[in-house]
Amino acid sequence: MAPLNCLYVVVAFVLSSNILIITSLSSETLPPSTEHSTEIYQVSRPLTTYEKYLRNCANKLKPNYAEEIFYSVFIGNQTIGKPCCFNLVTDMGLYCHVDITKYMVKLPAFKKNESLILNRSAMIFCECMDV
């Protein structure tokens, strides 16, 4: 039962990073050209099936709850209220939470804290299950 609870926490972490995933999935930056320019170009590309799945998962959270979960999991400086926990567990669910978290920790900004973030994510989901 304990490993399953930890998995739930990981899922919560992933969902809280809704904004980062949507931003990172929707565009990519082109490499600099040989010309001297200060402009940054972004090219939209179609989302993969997996990226669409992650976006749908992230959209299951209310925006203010997604922010709460993000700061709790990735930054570690916020607690999650009961309504947010309810939204995480019942609307998003374990699989979405885990998949989003796993995707997010592979991003350069979070890679160095991967184990800490995954642990926080699992703990948060477990705590939300008890609410």
TrEMBL record:
Keywords: Signal. Residues 56-113 form the Prolamin-like domain. It holds the Pfam family Prolamin_like. InterPro entries: Prolamin-like (IPR008502). Residues 1-26 form the signal peptide. This is Prolamin-like domain-containing protein. It comes from Glycine max.
